[in-house]
Design brief:
By secondary structure, the protein is of the alpha+beta class. It has one domain. The protein contains three helices and six strands, in the order H-E-E-E-E-H-E-E-H. The protein has a six-stranded antiparallel sheet with strand order 1-2-3-4-6-5, covered by helices on one side. The longest helix has 15 residues. About 30% of the residues are buried.
Length: about 200
């Protein structure tokens, strides 16, 4: 994992955060890869993308959810952050079509993030975000396609504790929740199976 700053010039706190992210153990369904980090938001940043796939099946199989996790570090502590760290996340998954008109969908999506933060005992402040539902309907030559519904959760928060790796776990938990995977107790591995 890297950053957009010059190699070897990372402050000790950022180097320690990168180490903490590398050490995080995620569910086998979550496939993570590092991508270029945004370069204008903070002096130090690392970005990861992930796909949630069915455990035990090749990566080419159906993607259940996907997203992006960015950890930003700015020693000047920008006022809106309320700290020197900021986590910026995105999570997206296709849902069952009957959820398209559920007025509770946004609140449920946001509660999944808040529950993940609480369950992982991840201290945070200055949280904010949006939950969007996207309904796609096809017409004319594409009219035989069924309507699809996607949920997108964009959220950011400021970690306040020393363990930054736990915030990567929170994001992974959120991805699994919107993918429809049940939570697993520590040490338990999911059996292969189909969601739809």
């Amino acid at each position: 994992m890297g950053t957009h700053s010059v190699p070897g010039e990372n402050p000790a706190e950022f180097t320690q955060a990168l180490r903490a992210l590398r050490e995080v153990q995620l569910r086998p369904e979550v496939r993570v890869e590092e991508v270029p980090a945004p370069s204008r938001i903070a002096p130090y940043a690392v970005a990861l993308t992930a796909e949630v796939v069915t455990a035990g099946l090749p990566a080419e199989d159906d993607e259940l959810a996907s997203g992006r996790f960015v950890l930003l570090h700015d020693p000047s502590a920008p006022e809106p952050w309320d700290g020197v760290w900021r986590v910026v996340t995105f999570a997206r998954a296709e849902l069952e079509p009957e959820l398209a008109n559920d007025p509770m969908l946004g609140g449920v999506g946001w509660s999944w993030l808040m529950d993940a933060l609480k369950t992982r005992d991840a201290p945070y402040t200055a949280e904010g975000g949006t939950v969007t539902r996207v309904v796609s309907e096809s017409f004319a030559a594409l009219g035989e396609r069924k309507a699809t519904v996607e949920m997108e959760i964009r959220a950011s928060w400021t970690p306040t504790g020393p363990d930054l790796g736990v915030h990567l776990q929170v994001w992974s938990d959120l991805l699994c929740m919107i993918a429809g995977l049940p939570p697993l107790p520590e040490g338990v591995v999911a059996l292969p199976g189909r969601r739809r």
